[in-house]
Amino acid sequence: MTTVDIVNLFVSALLLAGVYAAMSVGMTIIYGVMKIVNLAHAGFLMLGAYFVFELYTRFHVDPLIGAVLAFPVFFSVGVGIHWLMIRRIPRSDQPTLTSLLLLFGLWLVLQNLGYLIWGNADRAILTPRTFSTLQIGPIIFPTVRLVVFGAAVASLLALEFVLHKTWFGRAVRALMQNSDAGRLVGVNVEGTARVAFGVGIAFAGAAGGLLAMMYSFTPDFGGSFLLRAFVIIVLGGLESFAGVAIGSLILALVETFSILAIPAGYQPSIAFSLLVLALVILPEGVAGLWNRRQRLT
Amino acid sequence: MAPILRLDRISKNFAGLAALKDVSFDVEEGGLFGLIGPNGAGKTTLLSVIAGSQSPSSGIITFRGRDLTGARSFHAVRSGIARTHQVPKPFRSLSVLENVEVGYRFGCHDRSASASKDAAQVLEWVGIGHLKQMPASRLSVGDLKRLELARTLAARPKLLLCDEVCSGLTETEAASILRLLGEIRRGGTTILYVEHNLRAIMSICDRVIVMNYGQKLAEGPPEAMQNDPSVIEAYIGKAASV
Amino acid sequence: MTDAGASSRSTISKFAPVAAPLALLAALAAFPLLGPGPNGIRLLFVTLVWVTTSVAWNLLGGFAGQVSFGFAVFYGLGAYSTAMSLNAGLDRPVSLLIGAAVAATASLLIGLPTFRLRGPYFAIATIGVSEAVRVVMTNVAVTGGASGYRLSEHGSFNQLLHFYTALSVAVVAVAISIFVRRSKFGLALVAIREDEGAASDLGVNPFRTKLLAHALAAALTGAAGGVYTGYAAFIYPQGVFGFDISVAILLMPIIGGVGTVWGPVVGALVYGFVHEELIASFPQLHLLLYGSLLILIILFEPGGVMGLLGKIVRFARSRSGRGAHSSA
Question: Which of A67, B55, B103, C153 has its CA 20 to 30 A from that of C284?
Fold first, then answer.
């Protein structure tokens, strides 16, 4: 194991963290504002992948542009679903099983839609970018991952901007802390929740498109990412986006470097084990530990 | 005679916020003690700590001579301390009778005869015997408060911690609950009673403990507390006590 | 409405709770003798295995309100332990007990850390555990890894034996469920479901109670896995530890009526038959169906089939009651 190898692994982990962050942002938004664990997130990742796939194979739209286009499309879908279903379940400041099961049902439906429309053959998006790499010194960067990393950073930054510099963002943050208080000071809870849900689904769809550039997919795509998204959100702390970055980094690092220690077959169990460990030991995530020290009376 | 409950410098911290700070006092057996203080004074937190729903950050709780510090609430109940909740927490899908049965079958440590019969008796005594088959989800606020009390009484506690049993009730309802507390006390149960309604406290308590900002401010007979400057200040503000 | 009519109605309502299940049991027991053929028996066999897992899951998820998304881990552990015991020469009842015991032990290990978590977090943690075990089993060589594990041949295949084994285990499960529901233990479970803090404040020990319910549910689920293994003679990790198994296990009680005694039975019967028919005619639609059903149930009738039936019965009763008064 040379230093170059280690650096390469590290870079690999960093880029993977970018992928994971991009993929989890959608879930974090919805969880943060509405305290809903969106199991259907996996379904929207999958639909996003197919959306970009169709645009690419039928209209030769570059997948990156496709992912950007996915944003408004999936936003509308998200708003529609909120209007159709989500607003009918009781709201709570704690995650409820009702919402969990409802969105689980939605995930099953989305999966089946996927199978009906596209069948269960493996699909992939192959562009010249897929296999190209960028070499800086001794370090090799797969281009696709760089692109996705860039997109992840951009979206996190955009989110931070919206959250802290816009009126909508302020409403969202108010709701994330205390929805009753938010309502009292005039925040339109249902409207904000609807937009937030739409944004969360939009990010899911766009992320799916990005993931489609790197992985092959079938309609049950998203399941393995779903679990990883949980791990990230729990590790990073469910309440903040910096938390998503931290959680993604931790998961990516552990997964990448675990190759050195355990056989490849066991790799998937890392995410699952981390998830359980994180839930049990760090209920507020790493960010929660930090917050506790920072909190004022 | 040793007090039934002794609190020795109880403190409770939540993420840097001191909800309780070095609270100490004794509760004599058979007495009716009031615990008053403005909102946020830490009264409910103190009850939670005594009852075992929360554990103190430091300090010692001695109950009937045994150290119960940090004992969880189901353990505390079986030892003889039971509490009501400020906002009633009924088991909604169970009937009123079944709610009380939970208290009787799990909390009461000197069991005898059939649980339902004794649970029904408690319900009658508290005044909601006629509602025993009704699902708890359909009770009015006043009846929920009575159910809360009945459930806790069914556990036959030696020390009953009441958290604002009268809040949200009409004058008449509150008066009848207070009468009930008097009867409970005459039956031998010690009561520690948190209440916002000062008139209620003054009318029935032997002794009053005043709290603010998580600390014990003063302690004494009700009349003395009414005139204590630090108490007045806590409730109304500095100007009034001058 | 005459007095005779009223008293015959009350007689029916007194005996129905006992008579109906016994009639159902008699019907199920007699089923193979009515000539449905091996395929029909297989269908009911699978359904009975599902009845067991459904009733078992409901002990924890329905009565106690702890919704686990990872019960496949107990099904799989039961399956593999029973298989290995059978291959070691132990007879069937002992092997099933071993399967149940292994699953119950696992449930204690899993429950100790995870029961500290609230609702959805507990659910997610159970997914993590189940999937982790599945991945491990896929890699462990002793049990065949991904290629699966085969039962060594022991004489000819006796379908009826397997059928009645499944029926017996299902009956035990339902009996346990009925008993729990009426017991002090059942009262504790419901109290925990409604408000764990208040339950603890009244003397219920939530940790011990949940662990016990978990162990009971896991044992029954493990036994179900063992029953299935005896029949299938070949099992592999994805088939018994798969997330789709966990999903099926939790869907059935929810469809039938979570938290009731007979809801899970109804849900399993519905799922068992419908599933087989669906797979045959519309293999592409089962996820859509279950997903939509789940959505509809959550939104409109959380009580599932039993809840719906209950509403219909109450509606019919109030109608006939009004009729009696108007004619008086």
Answer: A67
d(CA C208, CA C188): 11
Residue B114 bridge partners (DSSP): none
C4 vs A107: which has the higher pLDDT = A107
**CA–CA gap between residue A277 and residue A250 (Å, rounded):** 13
Q: Which backbone phi and psi does B52 adopt, to 5 degrees?
A: 95, 0
Count of other CB atoms within 10 angstroms of residue B205 = 24
Structure tokens at C312: 């219909």
Q: Residue B226: CB partners within 8 Å, gap ≥ 6?
A: B202
pLDDT along chain A (297 residues), means of 10: 81 87 86 85 94 92 88 94 89 79 92 88 80 78 83 82 80 73 74 89 92 85 82 71 83 86 80 80 57 45
| Chain C: partners with 3+ C-beta pairs within 8 Å | A, B
Pairing state of beta strands B190-194 and B32-36?
Answer: parallel
Q: Which residues, numbered 10 to 69 in chain A, qualify as contacts with chain C under a Cβ-Cβ cut-off of 8 Å?
A: 37
ipTM rounded to 2 decimals = 0.88
Q: Quick one: CA torsion of C55, C58, C59, C62, rounded to 10 degrees? A: -150
Question: Is B18's Cβ below 8 Å from some Cβ in A?
Answer: yes
Question: A59 to each of A131, A206, B158, how far by Cα in Å?
Answer: 22, 18, 79
pLDDT for B237 equals 62
Q: How far apart are CA C279 and CA C250, in angstroms?
A: 19
Which 3 state secondary structure label does DSSP give C270?
A: helix
Q: What does the block give as tokens for A56?
A: 């690419």
- Strand (E) or helix (H) holding B57: none
Among candidate residues A86, A102, A117, A98, the one with its CA nearest the CA of residue C291: A102
Sheet strands (E) in A87-226: 133-136, 139-142
Q: Which amino acid is at C94?
A: V
Residue B89 is nearest to which of C195, C204, C259, comparing CB atoms?
Answer: C195
Q: Which of residues 227-246 of A touch C (CB under 8 A)?
A: 227, 230, 234
Query: What is the SS3 assignment for A90?
Result: coil
Give strand ranges (E) for B100-200.
159-163, 190-194
d(CA A263, CA A19): 23
Contact: A280, C284; criterion CB under 8 Å: no
C146: closest CA among C237, C242, C245? C237
| Alpha carbon separation from B133 to B98, C47, C181 (Å, rounded) | 8, 37, 17
Q: Please tell me what DSSP assigns to residue B32.
A: E
Contact yes or no for C223/C77 (Cβ under 8 A): no
Q: What is the pLDDT of residues C228-270, one digit of tens each?
A: 999 998 999 989 999 889 999 999 999 999 999 999 999 999 8
Question: Considering only CB atoms, which chain B residues are within 8 Å of C204?
Answer: 74, 102, 106
Whole-number Cα distances in Å, B42 to A297, B103, C200: 14, 26, 21
- And the tokens for A255? 């997964």
| A295 contacts on B by Cβ (under 8 Å) | 15-17
Whole-angstrom distance, CA of residue B231 vs CA of residue B210 = 7
> Which chain B residues touch C201 with a CB distance below 8 Å?
51-53, 73-74, 77, 82-83, 85, 152
Residue predicted with more confidence, A145 or B111: A145
All residues at 6 or more sequence positions from B54 whose CB lies less than 8 Å from its CB, including other chains = B12, B45, B48
Flag whether residue C212 sits within 8 Å of chain B, measured between CB atoms: no
DSSP of C97-140, one letter per residue?
A: HHHHHHHHHHHHHHHHHHTTS-HHHHHHHHHHHHHHHHHHHHH-
- The torsion of the CA quartet C265, C269, C271, C277, rounded to 10 degrees, works out to 180
Position with higher pLDDT, A273 vs B27: B27
CB count, 10 Å around CB of A292? 12
